[in-house]
Prior knowledge:
It contains 1 helix and 8 strands. The N and C termini lie far apart (74 Å). The strands form 2 sheets. It has a 6-stranded antiparallel sheet, with no helix packed on it. A two-stranded parallel sheet has the order 1-5. By secondary structure, it is mainly beta. Helices cover 12% and strands 32% of the residues. The longest helix is centred in the first third of the chain and has 17 residues, at 5-21.
Amino acid sequence: xxxxxxxxxxxxxxxxxxxxxxxxxxxxxxxxxxxxxxxxxxxxxxxxxxxxxxxxxxxxxxxxxxxxxxxxxxxxxxxxxxxxxxxxxxxxxxxxxxxxxxxxxxxxxxxxxxxxxxxxxxxxxxxxxxxxxxxxxxxx
Length: 140
């Protein structure tokens, strides 16, 4: 079977582009498509979870967010972080979502890189935070 020169160039180009398109390093959300991997957490009265002072990368730490003023600001690893992106899609925490009557959200904070941290909780998309030099404004 004869293949035209244009068709051959098109097929060769497509074959070269496909491996690049499947790389998860270009799309941080794609590497999260493995399904729930962590058990749901609940808030334990008197035991606030905020992770260690020096977290290690790719280790999920139990972490509680006080939601009265929202979830835009968190303090993790001794510094302030601000919400940068929300990754809807596959949940990373299996189990029932917490009651919405509570003002504390129990989940996990994972340092993804020196300037990226992800928060995951049951029934929620991944919240991605980046460090900031600013401090959160007062809550009203």
